[in-house]
Amino acid sequence: MGRIAYANIVCATRGGEASRTTEDKAIGIARESGARLTFLYVVDTSFAAEQATSEVELDMMATDLRHIGELILKRVREKAAEAKVEAAVELREGAVSEEIEKYVTEHPEVDLLVVGHLSDELRSHLGPFLACLADGGQHVLEVKPHPE
Amino acid sequence: MIAKRNTGTLLIGLVILFIGLLWPLTAARADEDQPLLTISGYVRNTHGEGIADAELQVGMGGQSLEPRAGEHEVWRTDEEGAFLIRIPLSAEQVADLANPETIVTVQAAMPTYATTRRAIPAAEIAQRNNGFYTSLDFTLVHIHNPAFWVATVVLLATYVLISTEKLHRTVVALLGAAVLLFITYTLGTLNKDFFILSFQQAIHCIDFNVIFLLMAMMIMVSITARTGVLQWLAVRAYALAGGSEWKMAILLVIATAILSALLPNVTVVLLVVPVTVEIAFILQINPLPLLLPEVFAANLGGTATLIGDPPNLLVGSFAHFTFVDFLLNMAPAVVVTMVALIALMWLFYGRQFRRVPAEEAAALLAELKERHQIADPALLRKCLLVGGAVIVLFMVQGFFQMEVSIPALIGMAVLLTWTRADIVKELEDVEWPSLIFFLMLFIVVGAAEEVGLIQALADWVNGIAGGSLVVAILLVLWVSAFASMLIDNIPLTATMLPVVAFLTATVPGAQGQILYWALAFGACLGGNGTVVGASANIVAVGLAERVGYPITFNEFLKKGLPVTIATLLIATVWLLGMAILR
Q1: Which three-class secondary structure state does DSSP give residue B98?
Q2: Which of B31, B153, B256, B442 qualifies as a FRET site for B558, CA 20 to 30 Å off?
Q3: Which residue of chain A is at minimal alpha-carbon distance from B548?
Q4: Does residue B218 sit at the A interface (CB-CB below 8 Å)?
Q5: What angle do CA B331, B337, B341 make, to 5 degrees?
Q6: B225 and A60: CB-CB below 8 Å?
Q7: Which residues, in sequence order, are CB contacts of B313 under 8 Å at separation 6+?
Q8: Cα separation, B356 vs B363, whole angstroms
Q9: Per-residue pLDDT for B40 more than 90?
Q10: Residues of B in contact with A65 (CB under 8 A)
Q11: Neighbours of B582 (CB within 10 A)
Q12: Pairing mode, strands B36-45 and B82-88
């Protein structure tokens, strides 16, 4: 069975060490396929909504997270460039699962979605959509991190 | 003609007024002439606390004696549990009292307590001038009636639902308070065994000192936070480190602890930790060796002051401790715990810290300085002036016998006026769910106290302590700390306060309020043990997860538990030292 050649790959990254394997995998596939690669980072402040004492704090934290997101996307683009892959980047704000779903829906040309190991919470939100993608002929690759 | 008519009207008015003023005096004089039976005393619970609003009934020779007409329907105890009954006697009743065989009965009744009746032989009633006098005290015993079980189930359910996060904690507390009042005013009206607490009692349970302080602090912090001063301070810490990651880590934890002593821990973590993560990302290092100690420092810093952490606020308001009391009794030990934290930080991560090359450090500093400037220097100046004045007022709060919320309310009012802030917008920034949570929680815990559950718990703890102050200190400190690791420390502290009050009154040597300090240490320091131990932990772990450094429950525990145990050991030594020196 031959390898599938992809044309448009989206890689959702969180930027940390846990995402390095996912990013590398996406870059590797994009290089092999000659596919267009886009890295997606979502600024999600929902985890703090209950604990924050004011909207001001949440807004300020969102600004900082946005900047961190930009740093992450800059780093992955450089990493892709080192591997001779030209990557686009996309920064979004909202719930992670919803934004991934929205992005892929808005870009039907995406034929491979690469994600890191999904937490139970993320899987419960994103699971049905990923199953739907598979039915529609798009592919999903969940990359497990390397054991330490 | 008109003038004459006016004078006449005025005279008639004056006569009516004179009669009106004189009438009660004449009536009173008539009453004074009538012989009176005066009964005074206290109604207390088994812990010696006065029971307010207890109902008293008096009988003589099988007949019920009623209050004077127009006075009130029934006799009740006041806020302190004291009562004073004055009954006008007929000639026949005076004759009865002259007979030593006559028995006067007094009955004290209160929902959730066993009704108690006392008989006083007339021979024991003193007669002086035209009156009869006696005094007696009641000790009412709680009964485990349906009201007791309902309040117990509601309190336990509140704990379980808050801990499992099945519902928002505010909804849980609201539901609990609503159930208690609903049962009181439906089943409790039909059958007194279901009477848990009245609406007036529920309102009385609320500590408005806590509510006002929280509200005022929320508004002041919200205005101050938007100046960007917290992030600016984090950048200053990095600048001071001069490229040494280890120095930077130390400075960041110290800055976080100091800020957390004056601001909510969550606010500090929300605003300082992202800057730390940003620094780590630019330096391409793992942010966790910086982030986790920062969260621990936030919880430790909050332990130092009255306004640093909600459990301290509850303890301070309940025990009438001042801001200075906290600085003297908590802050020195917290400084030592910070040293321990820094030592543990070296033990956990020491090898990971390196020196950033000078060029890289300078470039990063320039970038950080550009991004994290003070957004509004004029606003910051006002905030610092008002904040400084509030702290000065906190310092002299004890001298003026001022509740701790008052300086905060003054600060809030001045800051809102001076900055011409949009009050509607500012009020939107108040975290109302938290305030409502506190309001409702006070009612739920108050109900548990009304029905005797807290007293039963206090008796149980007292039995374990066996009258030993050392055991009591260890018990309160360590049990509240370990409980705080798993359950919300706010309801825990609210529940423990009446228990500690009882222990303070009964355990020899505890009268120096030391057990309250043990509770404050336990509830705050326990927060570092687990991810769910404190809100600041949840925020930091969420933030780490969002930037690709997920922290599992066990990973947090591996670092948090040693920190908790080390800091608890320091607190133990500190408290035992206090107990010995006092």
Answers
A1: helix
A2: B256
A3: A16
A4: yes
A5: 140
A6: yes
A7: B210, B213, B214, B306, B307, B404
A8: 11
A9: yes
A10: 274, 543, 546-547
A11: 12
A12: antiparallel
Substitution target in B217, B263, B281 with the highest count of A β-carbons within 10 Å is B281
Distance (Å) from the alpha carbon of A108 to chain B's nearest alpha carbon: 26
Nearest CA in chain B to A62: B274
Contact B50, B77 (CB under 8 A): yes
Contact B429 A71 (CB under 8 A): no
Nearest Cβ partner for B266 among A44, A52, A65: A52
The tokens for A5 are 């050649």
Backbone angles phi, psi at A112, to 5 degrees: -145, 125
- Whether residue A53 and residue B221 make contact (CB cut-off 8 A), yes or no, is yes
Q: A4-61 pLDDT, tens per residue?
A: 778 999 999 998 888 889 999 999 999 999 999 999 999 999 888 877 777 888 888 9
Angle subtended at Cα B553 by Cα B552 and Cα B555, rounded to the nearest 5 degrees: 65
Long-range Cβ contact pairs of B167-175 (< 8 A, separation 24 or more) = B168/A50, B168/B433, B169/B437, B169/B488, B170/B433, B170/B434, B170/B436, B170/B437, B170/B440, B173/B436, B173/B437, B173/B440, B173/B441, B173/B443, B173/B444, B173/B491, B174/B436, B174/B440
Q: Which residues of A touch B (CB under 8 A)?
A: 13-19, 43-44, 47-48, 50-58, 60-61, 64-65, 67-68, 71-72, 75, 119
Best residue in B223, B270, B490 for a mutation probing chain A (most A CBs within 10 Å): B270
CA dist B427 to A62, B143, B162, B435, Å?
Answer: 21, 44, 26, 12
DSSP for B339-404? HHHHHHHHHHHGGG--BPPHHHHHHHHHHHHHHS--S-HHHHHHHHHHHHHHHHHHHHTTTTT--T
pLDDT in tens, B73-112: 789 999 899 999 988 888 888 888 888 889 999 999 998 8
B253 is written with which tokens? 């934890």
What does the alpha-carbon distance between residue B224 and residue A69 come to, in Å, rounded to a whole number? 26
- For residue B419, which residues of chain A lie inside 8 Å, CB to CB? none
Instruction: State the Cα torsion A120-A126-A128-A131 to the nearest 10°.
Output: -100
Q: What is the mean pLDDT of residues B155-176?
A: 91
Contact B548 A16 (CB under 8 A): yes
Size of chain B in residues: 582
The closest CB to that of A57, out of B225, B278, B545, belongs to B225
**What is the distance between the alpha carbons of residues B325 and B342, in angstroms, rounded to a whole number?**
26
pLDDT in tens, B15-32: 565 555 555 544 444 455
pLDDT at B164 over 80: yes
Predicted pLDDT at B14: 60
**From CA B482, how far away is CA B501, in angstroms rounded?**
20
- CB contact under 8 Å between B277 and A18, yes or no, is no
